[in-house]
Amino acid sequence: MDIFIIGDIHGCFYTFKKLLNKLDKDNEILVQVGDLIDRGKNTPQTVHLARNLKQKHPNNVIFLKGNHEFEFIQHIEKAPNLHWVNHCGEETLYQYKLNNRNIKNDMDWFKEMPLFWENSDLFISHAGIAKEAANPFEESSNLSVIWNRNQLKNLNKLQIIGHTPCKEPMYDEVSNSWNIDTGAAYQGYGYLTGVKVKSNGTIIEFLKEKTDVKDII
């Protein structure tokens, strides 16, 4: 099956729904690179949609953990996480209260999220395998696959990541990697990116969904 990879969504529910219309559920695996939450106007709705998709298609839908899910977990389990609250968490908590959604239940789902998805030709994670990372799967490390912003390691397969916003998908030849975080929640220039890839790592096409105004705070 081909793989349909979606970048950082950040609470952009309506934009996410539009991009999902381009998913071929019978012939594609959906992998989302993490950071479903925060920054946008509709985090609880976005999580609800994601969880329903996962429930209906458990083997063909994968939502990876990003640093925002990690920070959310830290706040609910070991409150307060002031770094998260002060940057975007206060708004997310308000949205959960407004929507009367069970925040603990969603936290438990975030904890179950895998850190990566891979096959023999493709590796997908939130922030990528850093060149110098001793343990890229230690979630609290700033070189982990949910936090890294340093040069990526060449894995002899294609890496696809998000995490660091850019104005268009960016390819790094040295590491053979694409960054597809195009700042969906940022007013003025952001949009949500999807990329369809064959199982052997060959890019089929990039898809661009301009952020719906209903998702912008």
TrEMBL record:
Keywords associated with the record: Hydrolase
Return the EC number: 3.1.-.-
The Calcineurin-like phosphoesterase domain covers 1-167
Q: Hey, what's the signal peptide range on this chain?
A: none
What Gene3D superfamilies does the record tag this protein with?
A: 3.60.21.10
Q: Out of the domains of life, which is the source?
A: Bacteria
Q: Cross-referenced InterPro entries, in alphabetical order?
A: Ap4A_hydrolase, Calcineurin-like_PHP, Metallo-depent_PP-like
Q: Which CDD domains match?
A: MPP_PPP_family
**Molecular-function annotations in GO:** hydrolase activity
State whether keyword Ribosomal protein applies.
no
Which residue windows are coiled coil? Answer: none
Task: Report the protein name in the record.
Answer: Metallophosphoesterase family protein
Biological source species: Chengkuizengella axinellae
